[in-house]
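Exercise: predict the fold of this chain.
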Amino acid sequence: MSFSERWQALEWDDIRLSVYSKTTADVERALAKRKLDLADFKALISPAAEPILNRWRSVQR
């Protein structure tokens, strides 16, 4: 299967729901891990990550 075919076969509604269902605890768990997986990536791009990453970014400055 080509990349394009794989991309088109993805269930985007399910992916969106998975990303938006992530919690603050999911984000904190992902930030504490050394090796991330797909669920961790979803947590880090979720709306739940925004306040945590903004706080983390301000500390880094």
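Check your answer against the key: The chain is about 70% helix and 0% strand.
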